[in-house]
Design goal:
This protein is mainly α. Helix content is about 45%, strand content about 10%. It has a three-stranded antiparallel β-sheet with strand order 5-8-9, covered by helices on one side.
Length: about 475
């Protein structure tokens, strides 16, 4: 991609304001039209939100959008909507033992309410604060209970190589809804649930009343994800390119050995499903920020602050560099997979802006919205530590993506369309995405996670323009 180094958050104010204006319309339209008996809105078909039973991982984004909109605009009706729907519908997500999506659903709702109160954006109410915090504690513990051990140790360093057994404690991961053998790249962003629960002093109580440290379990998961879902150019296999991300890693549950990469939503185990890579970019950048809020002594049992920080940072850099240099288009928008079946027909996509209306492979704007926030956060993190050139690179890349997304053809200006961010893709291999008449690939539709992360990105850029910042914790 070509980074526009002239962009600043201040220069994007007009565009972020337009995002907030349109978001208010879209949130109201979905809320007024949606029948909760139909489940959770997931993505649009012909401009109308519809559900898709797989896992109910998008409801927190639906109500979380209203809370972000209140944060951005002060619209009390949005606060009322987000608060009331969180109380009414989100309790089952807190205790959901069958998914890895707790950070998506619960930090986007209960977490945003708590953050707004702690920031003084809404009146302090100890009962409401306690309500959100008990929900976040339980959510983090329930997610942490989805645990599989491996035959490897934590922390692990990319310098030592993917097959090294170096580390101080046994390593494990939070398994996906596919089962105990399955580690998804997505879960690194959902790991925020464990982080908040640990920050609140909570633990997972195991057999024999054994307390399980949620921070340590989060570090184990992040280290295992880095080791097996992210590549570092170490000739781990024939397709080991630094920064490439495998959607899924498969483990033998009999002995904890890694068996192979896999992919549920990407083209293949040996290409990069770009939304999976975006989760890695955003997730590790946020976890780096969280580490700064953790006492150093709390990390001693998992290798110490330096080892954990270095691992997170190298993983974030690798994924970000590959996004920028390897597969995104000139304007920063990726196609849904780095090398899907017909990608070669697109030519050199890095030399020109992405084309969401092409006849070969769809773009995924939702991946761009997720990655942009991670790039900005990594840029801020590195700049604060004196790495100004690297910080400016990542920060500028995030703003370049935002500049593209917050305009047509990605920003949905049609009041009849319920989505905010167009050209999002859900599950290309399963054929779930709507293909308009006369087209060969999906385009023109939105997803609840794409809309949420576009709004979250706009809020972050808007705050930066005001000289402010925020984190999930």
């Amino acid at each position: 991609m070509k980074i526009n180094s002239r962009l600043t958050p201040q220069r994007l104010r007009k565009k972020t304001n337009r995002v907030f204006e349109l978001a208010g319309q879209k949130i109201r339209a979905v809320d007024s039209a949606w029948d909760s008996a139909r489940g959770t809105p997931v993505f649009t078909v012909k401009g109308r939100y519809t559900s898709r039973g797989w896992t109910e991982w998008t409801q927190g984004f639906q109500f979380g959008m209203a809370l972000l909109q209140y944060d951005a605009t002060g619209d009390d009706a949005m606060l009322k909507l987000g608060r009331e729907k969180t109380v009414r519908y989100m309790a089952s997500h807190v205790s959901h033992v069958g998914v890895h999506d707790h950070g998506f659903n619960n930090v986007s709702t209960y977490g945003n309410l708590r953050r707004l109160m702690l920031e003084g954006r809404i009146p302090y109410n100890p009962d409401e604060l306690n309500f959100t915090e008990i929900a976040l504690k339980v959510s983090g513990a329930v997610q942490a209970a989805r645990y599989s051990s491996t035959a490897y140790r934590t922390p692990w360093s990319p310098v030592a190589g993917a097959r090294s057994g170096a580390g101080v404690v046994p390593g494990g991961y939070l398994y996906s809804f596919n089962g105990p053998h399955s580690l998804f790249a997505d879960t690194i962003r959902s790991l925020r649930a464990l982080a908040v629960a640990h920050q609140l002093g909570h633990v997972l109580m195991g057999e024999g009343d054994k307390p399980i440290n949620l921070l340590h379990r989060a570090v184990e998961h992040a280290a295992t994800t880095a080791r097996f879902n992210v590549f570092f150019g170490q000739e781990r296999d024939t397709y080991d390119v630094r920064g490439r991300v495998a959607h899924e890693s498969i483990f033998n549950r009999n002995d904890g050995q890694f068996r192979c990469p896999s992919s549920q939503q990407g083209y293949s185990p040996f290409t990069t499903w770009t939304r999976g890579a975006a989760w890695v970019i955003a997730g590790y950048a946020e976890q780096l920020e969280f580490l700064d809020a953790v006492k150093g002594s709390d990390l001693d049992a998992v290798g110490g602050r330096r080892a954990v920080t270095d691992l997170y940072l190298e993983t974030a850099r690798a994924a970000c560099d590959y996004y920028i240099e390897g597969y995104s288009a000139k304007d920063g928008i990726p196609y849904w997979d780095s090398a899907a079946l017909n990608s070669h027909k697109l030519g050199d996509i890095t030399k020109r802006p992405a084309d969401p209306f092409n006849a070969h492979e769809p773009v995924d704007s939702s991946a761009a919205a997720i990655a942009a926030q991670g790039l900005i956060r990594l840029g801020v993190y590195l700049t604060a530590r004196g790495e100004k050139a690297a910080g400016a690179k990542y920060f500028g890349a995030g703003l370049t993506i935002a500049d593209t997304l917050f305009d047509e053809p990605y920003l949905s200006t049609d009041q009849k369309h319920q989505g905010l961010l167009l050209h999002s893709v859900y599950h290309r291999p399963n054929g779930w995405d709507y293909v308009p008449p006369g087209r060969k690939v999906p385009c023109g539709e939105s997803s609840m996670w794409g809309d949420y992360h576009a709004l979250e990105l706009a809020l972050l850029v808007s705050r930066l323009a005001e000289g402010k910042y925020y984190t999930f914790f």
